[in-house]
Amino acid sequence: MVTSVLSSVTISRVSSVLNRDVKQFGKQFLFDGREETCWNSDQGSCQWVLMEFPQNVLVSQIHLQFQGGFSCQTCALEGCYKDGELVKIADFYPEDTNTLQKFTFAEQSVSKLRVSFLNSTDFFGRITLYHLDVLG
Fold first, then answer.
1. Principal localization?
2. N or C: which end of the chain has fewer CB within 10 A?
3. So where are the chain's domains?
4. CB neighbours (10 Å) of residue 40?
5. What are 74-127's pLDDT values in tens digits?
6. Residue 25 parent element (H or E)
């Protein structure tokens, strides 16, 4: 059975926050489990979320919930060990919907994981993400 590898000591970073308003749209809302909060990127191509784990973790699934109209057609998942360079694990292709989407890939051991949103469905390149979880 797979379980979340995210914890209170997981460090996260994002490419941008809409209007730099971290109180309303910051990265902390990706992981809070509340339906009414979200991370909202600013405009621009190739938005991303990076997670750093305190030790190596095994990952095999990612769960995402976008706001329809502000999702992504192609995502790249990359990972590495502590000081290594990120290498591609998988590409996946979310639908432009509000529902929770689950993607499975070959199990990998990583200490850093980056999800890159390569082409947003929004004309300005914004991403709105209500939920992100990584399981292994």
1. nucleus
2. N
3. 11-135
4. 23
5. 999 999 998 899 999 999 999 999 999 999 999 999 999 999 999 999 999 999
6. helix 22-25
Contact in structure between 51 and 74 (CB atoms under 8 Å) = no
Characterise 52 by phi-psi region: left (phi > 0), alpha (psi -120 to 50), beta (else).
beta
Extract the tokens encoding 27: 């990265």
The CATH code belonging to domain 11-135 is 2.60.120.260
First CA to last CA distance, the chain: 8
Give the alpha-carbon dihedral of 25, 100, 70, 29, to 10 degrees. 10
Give the span between the Cα atoms of 82 and 7, in whole angstroms.
Answer: 17
Number of H helices, E strands in the chain: 1, 7
Contact predicate 60/73, CB 8 Å: no
Q: What is the total residue count of the chain?
A: 136
